[in-house]
Write a structure and sequence with these properties.
364 residues, alpha/beta, globular
């Protein structure tokens, strides 16, 4: 029988034994490698087919988040949050909105620089202090001044009658805020310098407590703090920013977010401008909508409505040059460590044209 013969011959020849053994080992190794390669190719093929399905599934089910500052003022930004139109516009882009609350502008820009916020809304000074600290922010749009919405308050029974009477007094304000900037301008207008008063740097909530307890002599603050304190017979307005304010607020973002999501920014500015127009034309509806936000009654909010000037303003050379003036002022006072070239934070006209609403651009 062949099987027995092969077995007999295998035992009989050592040379044959070695040769057959090497052949068998080589054959097994070749077979193993072939099977392994086939298996690996099959697995790779399955992965290449499955991978796009997995990615597509992830991109359609997981939405990205854009974090926008929450406004607690009588503002179009607060209206935008309440009306919910931005969420609807961003949903097809795969984004949902998260509204984040901060004490004031400087705190917003600290968060922006630390990747804790995507879109901020501040006065003119916080971005300059942020740029001085090396933050790569981007100015997106600006607004009209609305100077009457910022007030220099003194206690209702205070003997202080003019800004000149503040000499040697304690004045509270948020450092690097619009209150800080307008105090400088008010003092200069009265022939005084910032060093002629005792500056007390306090965030709004802390300043409110200090003011109500007569621990400071004056307080420069924005709405709704001024109106609340007037209504409660705690304060009277010594001066507002109506004649002094020569800048608007700025919406800003980080350079990283702008580069990654210009489409999101474009939608945000479009919906914000719609909200600005609606807010201007509907004072009663705005008052009803924002009464819980501002903690003021509707009749008071309707009166406050006239303190604001609504609508976005395009970024122009005039806006950039004015912002540079403000930066130079802070440097001359020794309040920022180096000269700031604000233009580093502004885009080119072509870039602004791509993200700014067309009706806003028409106002250049």
């Amino acid at each position: 029988m062949p099987a027995l013969k092969g077995k007999f011959e295998f035992r009989k020849s050592p040379r044959t034994t070695r040769r057959s053994l090497l052949f068998a080992l080589g054959y097994c190794l070749m077979l193993s490698t072939t099977l392994s390669s086939c298996s690996e190719a099959k697995n790779n093929s399955q992965q290449s087919v499955a991978s796009p399905v997995s990615v597509a599934s992830s991109s359609t089910t997981e939405k990205q988040i854009v974090r926008i500052v929450r406004s607690k003022q009588l503002s179009a930004l607060a209206v935008l949050e309440k009306q919910g139109s931005l969420e609807k516009r961003l949903e097809p882009l795969g984004f949902k909105v998260q509204w984040a609350e901060f004490a004031a502008g400087p705190q917003q820009l600290e968060a922006l620089n630390a990747n804790g916020l995507d879109i901020a809304s501040t006065a003119e000074s916080p971005p300059i202090f942020s740029q001085a600290a090396g933050a790569p922010l981007v100015y997106l749009a600006t607004t009209r001044p609305s100077g009457k919405a910022i007030s220099l308050l003194v206690p209702v029974n205070s003997p202080i009658k003019t800004v000149s009477d503040l000499k040697g007094k304690k004045v509270a304000f948020q450092k690097a805020s619009i209150g800080h900037y307008l105090l400088v301008k008010a003092l200069e207008d009265a022939g005084l310098k910032l060093s002629d008063v005792q500056s007390v740097f306090l965030a709004p909530a802390d300043a409110n407590a200090a003011f109500s307890q007569n621990k400071v002599d004056a307080w420069y603050i924005w709405e709704p703090f001024g109106t609340r304190n007037e209504q409660n017979k705690i304060a009277r307005v010594l001066a507002d920013g109506g004649k002094l304010r020569d800048t608007g607020n700025f919406y800003s973002t980080s350079r990283q977010f702008y580069q990654a999501h210009p489409d999101v920014i474009k939608v945000f500015l479009e919906e914000l401008e719609k909200s600005e127009i609606w807010t201007k034309d509907h004072p009663k509806e705005v008052a009803q909508l924002l009464a819980p936000v501002t903690q003021l009654d509707q009749p008071t909010l309707e009166k406050m409505h006239d303190k604001y000037d609504y609508g976005l303003v395009p970024i122009t050379e005039k806006v950039i040059n004015k912002q540079q003036e403000v930066a130079d002022k802070w440097y001359s006072l020794g309040l920022i460590p180096k000269k700031v070239n604000v233009r580093d934070g502004f885009l080119t006209p072509e870039e602004y044209a791509k993200i700014t609403p067309s009706d806003v651009l028409a106002n250049k």
